[in-house]
Amino acid sequence: QARLAESGGGLVQPGDSLSLSCVVSGLTFNRTAMGWFRQAPGKEREFVATIGWNGQHKYYADSVKGRSTISRDNAENTVYMRIDSLKPEDTAVYYCAASKTAVAVHVPSLYEVWGQGTQVTVSS
Predict the structure, then answer these.
(1) Along the 124 residues of the chain, how does pLDDT read in single tens digits?
(2) Parallel, antiparallel, or unpaired for β 10-12 and 118-122?
(3) 85 CB contacts (<8 Å, ≥6 apart)?
(4) What pLDDT sits at residue 51?
(5) What is the pLDDT of residue 50?
(6) Are the CB atoms for 104 and 57 separated by under 8 Å?
């Protein structure tokens, strides 16, 4: 059974940086595209970033483009997400997800396994 375990969330101040990790087990990680999504209170879950199976292709939501980096380590079955210059509007529960595909995709319905999420709060 596939399992995704996120870590790295917390309370940070505006302008700070934060790195999230997601350790994956129970699936063929090096053939699976991975993604990060987030859900703020009262809002729908939204796409943040995705990375293809070999790390070559990456796509970001406009809201984080230019201040975030998604990466992966296939030897460690881990995907990472770093966001710089955090804003209060980045406050959300962040979810790691494993795609049905090997190529990077941003559509939530193409992701079949989800983590439990990690809370990120940006506040002074």
Answers:
(1) 999 999 999 999 999 999 999 999 999 999 999 999 999 999 999 999 999 999 999 999 999 999 999 999 999 999 999 999 999 999 999 999 999 998 989 999 999 999 999 999 999 9
(2) parallel
(3) 15, 17, 67
(4) 98
(5) 97
(6) yes
DSSP code for 110: G
Closest-CA residue to 88 (of 120, 66, 47): 120
DSSP states of 26-94? SS-GGG--EEEEEE-TTS--EEEEEE-TTS--EEE-TTTTTSEEEEEETTTTEEEEEE-S--GGG-EEE
Own/partner pairs for 74-77, CB < 8 Å, 24+ apart? 74/29, 74/30, 76/23, 77/23, 77/24, 77/25, 77/29
Burial class (CB in 10 A: 0-12, 13-18, 19+), 43: exposed
